[in-house]
Amino acid sequence: MKTEPTASRSRQSIKRIKISDLVIIDEIGFMPISRQEANLFFQLVSSCYERTSLIITSNKGFEDWAELLGDVVIATAVLDRIAHHSEIFNMTGDSYRLKHRDTILK
User: What number is the average pLDDT over the span 82-101?
Assistant: First the structure.
């Protein structure tokens, strides 16, 4: 089957992720997520739940995750697992990149 090597590599990557001490998922919600990707994300979060530390960054508030994941039930289940045993930081204010743009471009 043509996709078998890709599937095998994906299974190996998922296996490595599951045994990691820390997984960082940066900027979830920055790009649109399909229904299949939302389901895979739920499976990833569930498999890491209470086994692996997660750091997740997003430009979306929790109230926007149902739309982001395309399903209220999946969003609730994901957020339930993410928020349990968590420290949540809501960072607001000006972007560091934009705030220091003049000094970066000179």
Answer: 83
